[in-house]
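Virginiamycin B lyase, pasting as requested.
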Amino acid sequence: MRGINWIGALLFVATSVAGAGEVRVERFAVPAGAHPHDIAPASEPGGPVWYTAQRQGALGVLDPATGKTRHIPLGRGSAPHGVIVGPDGAPWITDSGLNAIVRVDPRSFEVTRYPLPEGGYANLNTAAFDGRGILWFTGQSGIYGRLDTRTGAVQVFDAPRGRGPYGITATPGGEIYYASLAGSHIARIDTQTGKAEVIEPPTPNQGARRVWSDSKGWIWVSEWNSGQLSRFDPKTREWRAWRVPGDGPKPYAVYVDARDHVWVSDFGANAMHRFDPASERFETFPSLDSNAAIRQILGRRGEVWAPESGTDHLTVYRTE
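Structure tokens follow.
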């Protein structure tokens, strides 16, 4: 059952899903040409939602109560890719154009840059904080690294198999895993030594793109090439995989919500999927416009947020 109502610039879509309760989908327009790549809502309910306006070299912030947005320029040459909210409540950005990690003060909007050491273009991708407050990040050119936010010291490591480090996640215990898209594997980083251990998925050339941890510390992987959602259990070292619904799926982003439901964006179907590990069933939420191109998923209590980089919209899936 679907109901659609226009209220100002916002579109509300209520979708009833059998056995899963109601999911309400709400879309917010952002400035044309922003190409929102990644998104990160503040932890507090109703708080600001940050997004990277990749093509405009800015960090955007949405007030979900009013639908109003503001863009904060990050500097000449900026091309921000990832954004997360750190333990300090501030948005932290991986900026491939600046070859730097960038912090924006959530109140004053002051911009602080932490450049990578000299040594070439990293093609910075995404970041995650470990249990000790250290920011870990990936670069598709073949690096990963860490930033000590207390001292500002940045250290970069060569990835064990070169090009490809892409998505990254922290487990509830503070362990760090990343996915290598070009290398078709995931890796666990020893946060003490900085050494990365390659972990091979059972499907060859699967194109592991992004990773996310659930509450048990299991690692969920969106496999771009194989069209699968897979899961790795670090304790048993066992893998499981499920084919994403539809013809020609292209799973891009993955995120696990507070109920341990797994959300996957699918370029092939132009849709979001929600997977229930208990029933092993997918539910599909088609995007309203063509070429939504959802490149990251993050959330907070009762909300799952996604940037539609292809339509200049932000979408929230409300589950409570």
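Note for the archive: The two ends are 17 Å apart (CA to CA).
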